[in-house]
């Protein structure tokens, strides 16, 4: 059902009653528009000048409207702060003035409402539609903007934000800085003071290397896990982004979208430009409640197959690196199956002939199996895995090419580069220009050829560099600034085509670590690789921070020898997310092999809880001697507690949250560390209320020890 209202009226989007309205129902005439979820509202007013204004979040509605409270402000016609929209019209005019035209709402499904607010320029055939998809129960709002025109020529979009929310001035911003191998390790929380705070990237083909496009705004002071008004934001975009927070001492404006740096976009008449989606999640009850809402939304809409648990994966990289052949790989299948592994992933190094992929200097782009290593191709290898009772997966990096490759020698003009400049390589490779139709066709054929091999049911899609010389020999000279946006849109088309053509193939999203940890690409994938740093000490902090925005089932966490930590500790950390291994199982000691086997068996018991249940972060591992958290099944019948001892510390109980106060729970430690005393409450039964009040004493007190405790009926 879609209804459009013209002129000034009140639209109150209450999702539990919206289905009662029919086409002939009339709402009270007024000049307010209110978008509502269970505990959040975004309120607009149409001014006497015809513009759309917003009441700042966290403030009382006022009858007085100020010019700087325009909701989606435009440059060049009186607005002097940071604009959301900046346009050069076909005749060269750099001003835009948007007036309210009407509103359309569509009840998409139970609790999900699409609202479209229509604006038009007073002097040009230029239209903007502000789009909001609200999820009532989860307190989630997806927001994006559509821009269309019928001018006599091309217009240039200098800035076109996805979102432009106004908030009270008493706002704290939490964002996450980190370089390669340090992604999401350094959360920073600051009061937003007068001026502009900018989080951004200029990487072109990935969002994150130094700053993640997700953040948290807390109103009226810093939030805790259980207290505070919190608005989390996450931009679904795999390219250069900017999130700017403009505090003019009257209010804070959050402007989020494509980075305006070097991305002026040329839009032809009758074409529609759609911005990336900005995802907002609200909570009145702190960070934990916000995250659980975000996770619920993500399992439904943000990732593929979000209501199915994941198989336990073994990657060959640590065992072989680039040095392997058919027999070496199949020798890994038996030990994997014996340990309880369910899925084997063959990583980099399986392709290239004239320029064999024996290191990272050659072969990318030549996606034919190496005849020396795999004389009969991938199919016999995948079949051998299946015969051993394992699924088989493959690594690929379809967007990249090595200069030492047959592809590059045939098509040097296919790479993104700048004329009259020496090629600047990263990891000895270049990025293929996806704005070219022939490159799009080539990459799709490569992906289709790889994933069509019988018995391949998993793939890791990597992207190990970003743009530093953003030039296209395909795009016209006057459209070079379209490159970043056109690339990402072509990338999404390729990912969408892959997901639809191979619906039963599980996909991992990787980009030199966590470079694409965002929902623009993730909706085509099942999980993402958060970092090439697999040291479990670092991962405790990383996974804590990623979990603000992403469900743990989407965060790949592998047991490795990185950091040379105790095997039991590494297993405990990996079990708290999407569990996998990157080990040479044949070289493990008998004790470590037993620990890994026990961890795999334990994970199979609890993965429905960690993947599909509710996460409660308990003790923050940043600048602390330990980190703790627990997961609770949706029906509150079962729970699992994780304790990660980062340093020696006192014997202190862990107080779980989210349990049913009246339900009885029996305590059992999973895969306990050999030789360590059992937990004192092992096998005893308590009510949820008792456990949440009195806590459980874990068995780990020394640094680099872990403890996993299951609570069962």
Please, could you describe this protein's structure?
The protein is 19% helix and 30% strand. The strands form six sheets. Strands 1, 7, 8, 9, 10, 12, 13, 15, 16, 20 and 21 form an eleven-stranded antiparallel β-sheet that branches. An eight-stranded parallel β-sheet has the order 29-28-27-24-23-22-31-30. Strands 6, 11, 14, 17, 18 and 19 form a six-stranded antiparallel β-sheet that branches. The protein is globular. It is built from 14 helices and 37 strands. With 713 residues, the chain is of the alpha+beta class. β32 and β33 (626-632) form a beta hairpin.
Mean pLDDT: 94
Query: For the terminal residues, how far apart are their CA atoms?
Result: 45 Å
Largest sheet: 11 strands, antiparallel
Beta strands, count: 37
Strand content: 25-35%
Radius of gyration: 27 Å
> Low-confidence parts, pLDDT < 50 over ≥5 residues?
1-29
Count of separate DSSP helical elements = 14
What spatial form do the alpha-carbon principal axes imply? globular
Tell me the structural class. Answer: alpha+beta
Please estimate the helix content: 10-25%
Summary tags:
713 residues; alpha+beta; 8-stranded parallel β-sheet; globular
Provide a concise account of the structure shown.
With 713 residues, the protein is of the alpha+beta class. Strands 1, 7, 8, 9, 10, 12, 13, 15, 16, 20 and 21 form an 11-stranded antiparallel sheet that branches. The two termini are 45 Å apart.
Question: Helix and strand layout, with pairings?
Answer:
Blueprint: E1 2-6, E2 11-13, H1 15-18, E3 32-36, E4 41-46, E5 52-54, E6 85-88, E7 98-109, E8 112-121, E9 126-135, E10 140-149, E11 155-167, E12 171-177, E13 186-191, E14 195-200, E15 214-219, E16 229-236, E17 241-247, E18 252-258, E19 265-267, E20 272-274, E21 277-283, H2 286-302, E22 313-315, H3 317-320, H4 326-330, H5 333-339, E23 343-346, H6 379-387, E24 391-396, E25 400-401, H7 406-410, E26 430-431, H8 437-451, E27 456-461, H9 483-501, E28 506-509, H10 519-522, E29 527-528, H11 536-546, E30 556-559, H12 567-575, E31 578-581, H13 590-612, E32 614-619, E33 626-632, E34 639-645, E35 664-670, E36 685-687, H14 688-694, E37 705-712
Helix pairs in contact: 8-9, 11-12, 12-13
């Amino acid at each position: 059902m879609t209804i459009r209202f013209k002129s000034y009226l009140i639209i109150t989007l209450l999702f539990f009653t919206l289905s009662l309205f029919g086409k002939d129902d009339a709402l009270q005439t007024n000049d307010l528009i209110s978008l509502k979820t269970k505990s959040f509202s975004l309120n607009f007013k149409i001014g006497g000048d015809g513009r759309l204004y917003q009441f700042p979040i966290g403030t009382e509605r006022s009858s007085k409207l100020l010019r700087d409270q325009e909701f989606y402000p435009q440059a060049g016609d009186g607005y002097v702060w940071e604009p959301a929209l900046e346009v050069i019209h076909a005749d060269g005019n750099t001003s835009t003035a948007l007036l309210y035209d009407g509103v359309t709402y569509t009840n998409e499904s139970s609790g999900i409402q699409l609202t479209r607010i229509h604006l038009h320029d007073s002097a040009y055939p230029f239209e903007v539609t502000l789009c909001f998809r609200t999820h009532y129960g989860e307190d989630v709002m997806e927001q994006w903007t559509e821009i269309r025109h019928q001018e006599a020529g091309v217009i240039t979009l200098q800035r076109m934000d996805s979102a432009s929310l106004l908030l009270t001035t008493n706002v704290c911003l939490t964002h996450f800085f980190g370089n390669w191998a340090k992604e999401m390790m350094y959360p920073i929380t600051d009061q937003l003071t007068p001026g502009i705070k900018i989080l951004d990237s200029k990487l072109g083909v990935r969002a994150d290397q130094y700053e993640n496009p997700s953040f948290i705004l807390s109103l009226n002071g810093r939030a805790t896990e259980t207290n505070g008004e919190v608005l989390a934001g996450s931009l679904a975009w795999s390219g250069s982004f900017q999130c700017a927070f403009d505090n003019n001492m009257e209010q804070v404006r959050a402007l989020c979208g494509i980075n305006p740096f070097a991305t002026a976009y040329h839009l032809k008449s009758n074409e529609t430009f759609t911005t990336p989606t900005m995802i907002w999640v609200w909570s009145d009850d702190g960070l934990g409640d916000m995250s659980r809402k975000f996770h619920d939304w993500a399992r439904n809409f943000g990732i593929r197959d979000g209501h199915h648990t994941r198989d336990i994966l073994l990657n060959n990289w640590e065992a072989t690196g680039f040095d392997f052949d058919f027999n070496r790989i199949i020798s890994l299948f038996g030990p994997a199956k014996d340990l309880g592994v369910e899925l084997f992933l063959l990583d980099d190094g399986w392709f290239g002939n004239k320029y064999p992929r024996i290191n990272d200097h050659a072969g990318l782009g030549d996606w034919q199996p190496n005849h020396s290593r795999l004389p009969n191709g991938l199919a016999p290898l995948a079949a051998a895995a299946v015969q051993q009772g394992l699924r088989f997966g493959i690594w690929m990096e379809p967007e990249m090419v090595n200069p030492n490759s047959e592809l590059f020698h045939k098509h040097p003009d296919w790479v993104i580069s700048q004329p009259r400049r020496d090629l600047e390589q990263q990891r000895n490779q270049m990025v293929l220009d996806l704005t070219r139709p022939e490159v799009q066709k080539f990459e799709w054929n490569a992906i289709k050829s790889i994933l069509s091999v019988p018995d391949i049911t998993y793939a890791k899609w990597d992207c190990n560099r970003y743009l530093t010389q953003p030039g296209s020999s395909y795009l016209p000279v006057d459209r070079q600034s379209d490159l970043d946006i056109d690339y990402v849109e072509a990338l999404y088309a390729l990912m969408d085509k892959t997901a639809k053509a191979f619906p039963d193939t599980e996909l991992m999203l990787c980009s030199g670590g966590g470079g694409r940890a965002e929902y623009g690409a993730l909706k085509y994938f099942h999980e993402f690789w958060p970092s090439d740093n697999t040291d479990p000490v670092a991962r405790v902090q990383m996974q804590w921070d990623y979990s603000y925005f992403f469900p743990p089932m989407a965060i790949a966490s592998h047991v490795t020898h990185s950091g040379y930590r105790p095997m039991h500790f590494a297993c405990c950390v990996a079990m708290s997310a999407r569990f996998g291994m990157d080990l040479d199982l044949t070289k493990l000691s008998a004790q470590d092999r037993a620990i890994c086997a026990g961890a795999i068996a334990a994970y199979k018991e609890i993965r429905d809880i960690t993947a599909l249940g509710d996460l409660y972060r308990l003790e923050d591992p940043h600048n602390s001697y330990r980190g703790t958290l627990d997961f609770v099944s949706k029906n509150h019948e079962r729970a699992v507690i994780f304790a990660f001892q980062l340093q020696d510390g006192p014997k202190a109980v862990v107080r779980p949250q989210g349990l049913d106060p009246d339900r009885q729970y029996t305590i059992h430690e999973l895969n306990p560390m050999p030789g360590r005393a059992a937990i004192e409450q092992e096998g005893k039964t308590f009510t949820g209320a008792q456990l949440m009040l009195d806590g459980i004493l874990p068995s780990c007190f020394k640094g680099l020890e872990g403890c996993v405790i299951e609570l069962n009926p």
